[in-house]
Design brief:
Elements (H helix, E strand, L loop, with lengths): L10 E3 L16 H4 L5 E4 L12 E8 L3 E12 L2 E7 L6 E4 L12 E8 H5 L7 E11 L4 E5 L3 E5 L2 H4 L3 E7 L2 E4 L2 E7 L5 E7 L2 E16 L5 E20 H11 L4 E6 L7 E3 L1 E5 L4 E4 L5 E10 L5 E3 L2
Parallel strand pairs: 2-10
Antiparallel strand pairs: 1-18, 3-7, 4-5, 4-8, 6-7, 8-9, 8-10, 11-14, 11-17, 12-13, 15-16, 16-21, 16-22, 17-19, 19-21, 20-21
Length: 312
């Protein structure tokens, strides 16, 4: 069974279409209730651009000790987590029911949800705030066990809020290690599972170029030029975040063949809109004494490179 593939073309353009907003900035309840690393953004009302309305997905793999599961969107209100709605249909995104895609290679069942934050943001009594997703599994003994996603904030889209962020998007197939337990693996089969996350305190670009020339040398000593090849490298900088986010980039995002980046920095000289990239490095992590926050740098190259000039 195929998963949902939300794809768009990308462009690299000189002028930032997400130029910083200088008027209309208003105080927000978000400023009072959210202080976490991850913030997703959405517009009020009907969405005008995918770039201004985030999505993210959650998936759980439950072994044969479970017979069913259901998911719930929770919001943090007055110091406690409150159930807002069961995630059982397309009201807030795309629902993947228990057993989606059939049994995995490891005899597990999947259940998941792709949250569309424009739908969540505009639902009555939802709006801005702190959220998480709860997955409740029912066991063969009729007991229940709760699993929780990471906590995240939802805020109204403003250009100045999106500034200094980077959005990553990727499609996952096959199987890979489970971040929460490296002794286990997740089997995504051929689901083409879509996910996305908005990185805070991040910057993508800082282009570097290297050039190789190819020659042929004849017996008389003459060298004749054959081609020039220019290789491009980009750096992703992520600053002052919790370590789990570094692991998510390293072991979830960077391990895919189809991955895209959109940079929202207003000072970036080149704007990247859904740029397809390929990871060519691990994380260069910087630790700070006395802090639980870390910074990291990653190196990427364009998935497509046509900067090769050959002799005619």
């Amino acid at each position: 069974m195929n998963g949902v593939a939300l794809k768009q073309d990308f462009n690299i353009i000189k002028n930032n279409p997400l130029a910083p907003q200088t008027t209309g900035v208003v105080p927000s309840a978000f400023d009072e209730v959210c202080c976490f690393d991850i913030t997703f953004l959405a517009e009020t009302g009907t969405p005008t651009s995918d770039l201004k309305n985030d999505k993210t997905s959650f998936i759980w793999f439950l072994d044969n000790n479970f017979v069913s599961a259901q998911m719930t969107l929770q919001k943090y209100i007055n110091g406690a987590w409150v159930d807002k709605t069961a995630l059982i249909d397309a009201t807030y995104g795309t629902f993947f029911a228990y057993g989606y895609g059939g049994k995995t290679l490891y005899d597990e069942d999947r259940i998941g949800y792709l949250l569309d934050f424009n739908k969540v943001f505009n639902a009555a009594t939802y709006g801005e705030g702190k959220y998480r997703v709860k997955c409740t599994g029912t066991t063969i003994l009729s007991t229940t066990i709760d699993f929780f996603s990471f906590e995240f904030c939802l805020s109204k889209y403003f250009d100045h809020v999106a500034d200094n962020t980077v959005r990553l998007e990727w499609y996952k197939n096959g199987n890979d290690g489970r971040i929460s337990d490296i002794s286990l693996k997740n089997d995504f089969d051929s689901l083409n599972w879509y996910n996305s996350i908005r990185l805070p305190n991040a910057y993508f670009g800082l282009e570097k170029q290297t050039k190789d020339k190819t020659f042929v040398k004849y017996q008389n000593g003459n060298e004749v030029w054959l081609s020039d090849n220019i290789e491009i490298e980009y750096t992703l900088k992520v600053m002052a975040v919790e370590f789990w986010l570094i692991n998510l980039i390293s072991f979830d995002f960077n391990t895919n063949s189809e991955m895209y980046v959109t940079d929202y920095n207003s000072t970036n000289q080149t704007v990247f809109i859904k740029q397809p990239i390929s990871s060519i490095s691990g994380a260069n992590i910087t630790y700070t004494d006395g802090s639980n926050l870390v910074s990291a740098e990653y190196i990427y190259k364009p998935l497509i490179n046509n900067f090769v000039h050959k002799r005619g």
